[in-house]
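[[Per-residue structure]]
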Amino acid sequence: RLLHGTGRMHEDLADDHRALKYEPRHCEALLLVAEWHREMGQPWRALTALHELSDLYPPGSEPQQVLYLTGRAYSATGRYEEAVQSFQAALDRGEATAELCFRLGEAQWMAGSTGNAAQSARQALALTPEHQPSRELLERIELARRAGQTASR
């Protein structure tokens, strides 16, 4: 954890992997490995670590952060329906935040569920009215709606 902010990602990741060799069920190390892979643009590897981490908890008791990060990894791999499921489970597991609601809405939008995406973005704005990514998502949804109306005329 101390090395996480040093800027030496590859070295720090190698240290975390070494730690997992000694204690493969170490939740914090698995979470750090998943974060490193996400930050390095390796969502498939992040998913692997997150699935290993999820397996350490009884079904239905995974922490909200694990579910949120799993949703982020699924989104990064283009698996939007699975991302929606992970983000929804994260919302069901703990307190709603604007960021979580936005990520859910973004995944819903990419999965083709426009109405749900707009509802999630509005929920994010109800929690944090100045949340710019949610405002931008609502604008994209509205532009697409208008373009669809224009095309159907």
Remarks:
- Helices lie at 9-22, 27-39, 43-54, 64-76, 80-93, 98-110, 114-127, 132-152.
- Residues 16 and 29 are 6 Å apart (CA to CA).
